[in-house]
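Hey, why these numbers?
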Amino acid sequence: MARSHRLDTPRETRRTLRPNFDPETFGRLSERFARFLGTARFLVYMTVFVLTWVLWNSLAPRDLRFDDYPFIFLTLILSLQASYAAPLILLAQNRQTDRDRIQFGEDRARNERNIADTEYLTRELASLRIALGEVATRDYLRSELSDAIEEIIKELRSKPQADSN
């Protein structure tokens, strides 16, 4: 058997032209980027950038301008930024949806356990109430004992009279 086909020998890694990336790291970076895009800081930075660009290319001397009036290069940059931002935001949303789904499942399982525990405790409490209904209380014992003492006293009082006849 050829050495390359044996199961106890690991395969040699092949070199590929495809880039190797960690999806988890890429996902975290996309979430950070999406989170940054949703801040006032990003809007301020982008506004300052665009205003600087437009003012420079409108008011600077002709030989220092690099993107005249229709601002084609600025449009290209903003379009490129939007074309990358949209999929990164979608990726971040998908990751959040996955986390929410997992959290929802954990919450559901926890709620089911809480309901089962509550039902168990309710049954136990009901059985304790039933058992306590069958247990003689102190007041009940006192009343029974006092009734018994009264009966004994009555019998004792009535016996000497019966013996004297």
About this structure: The two ends are 123 Å apart (CA to CA). The chain has a mean pLDDT of 88.
